[in-house]
Design goal:
The protein is of the alpha+beta class. The protein folds into 2 domains: about 5-65 and about 195-235, no CATH class; about 70-195, no CATH class. The chain has 2 helices and 17 strands. The chain has helices spanning about 5-25, 200-235; strands spanning about 35-45, 55-65, 70-75, 80-85, 90, 95-100, 105, 110-115, 135-140, 145, 150-155, 160, 165-170, 175, 180, 185-190, 190-195. β9 (about 135-140) and β10 form a beta hairpin. α1 (about 5-25) runs antiparallel to α2 (about 200-235). The radius of gyration is 24 Å and the shape is elongated.
Length: about 240
């Protein structure tokens, strides 16, 4: 395969990755707290032996779109939405992670948990406990959580120390190289943040990527036919 074939193949690989990202966005268009992702293409230039330099394209890096999504009122006393920047921090078997999905529930021991059973942390990084006999749960906009008028804890809002290190792990969970308190956001009780995926935009992107992939495949097919013709001609 000549240089043009390798360049096209590197582009095709990136387009396949981009298609996977778009498909995942569409699949999570109605997932609470989901943040859409995009694909970042980069260029790698290498000198070929005895020839000019060769430019290869890679599309194996994902970017997270942190734009605020709409809020949906649920009326749930343990449904919390973040308005502004920041994440909830939860403890998982793989370490501390961030999430915007604020649908919580008390565990068997009273620990405030996510739907997956991961403890939600307060501003000091400790677990939050809900009294089993609590009748009324209230949340102030600054994150202060109260039960029957008695303050229990202040839910922590966190941000990655380096925003570029934010990596989507699973579902609505993210990891980062480091964390710091997030300022300026407020919490809203009885609401959840929706997904920030626009299905119409994602479908349009999918069509565009598919057409680009088909164009690259057509080029590879023509190059293959050309090579076969040359070999057959020289072999006569």
């Amino acid at each position: 395969m000549d240089a043009s074939g390798y360049v096209t193949l590197s582009r095709q690989s990136g387009l396949l990755n981009q298609m996977d990202v778009i498909a995942n966005n569409i699949a999570n268009a109605s997932t609470t707290g989901f943040k859409r992702e995009g694909t970042i293409f980069s260029e790698y230039v290498s000198r070929t032996p005895g020839g000019p330099s060769l430019s290869m394209g890679f599309g194996n890096t994902r970017s997270v779109d942190l734009h605020q999504a709409g809020l949906s009122a649920t009326g749930g006393s343990l449904d919390f939405a973040i308005e502004g920047d920041g994440f909830f921090m939860v403890n998982t078997p793989k370490g501390q992670m961030l999430t915007r999905a604020g649908s919580f529930t008390p565990g068997s021991d009273g620990t405030l948990q996510t739907a997956d059973g991961f403890p939600v942390l307060d501003g000091s990084g400790s677990n939050i406990f809900i009294p089993p006999d609590a009748k009324t749960i209230a949340l102030a906009q600054d994150g202060t959580l109260s039960a029957d008028g008695t303050a229990l804890a202040k839910i922590g809002l966190w941000a990655p120390t380096d925003p570029t290190s934010l990596v989507h792990q699973q579902g609505t969970m993210f990891s980062a190289s480091g964390y710091q308190p997030a300022d300026g956001a407020k919490l809203i009780q009885g609401s959840l943040e929706e997904s920030n995926v626009d299905p119409v935009v994602e479908v349009a992107n999918m069509i565009s990527v598919q057409r680009a992939y088909e164009l690259g495949q057509s080029f590879l097919d023509r190059e293959d036919d050309r090579s076969r013709t040359v070999i057959q001609t020289l072999g006569r």
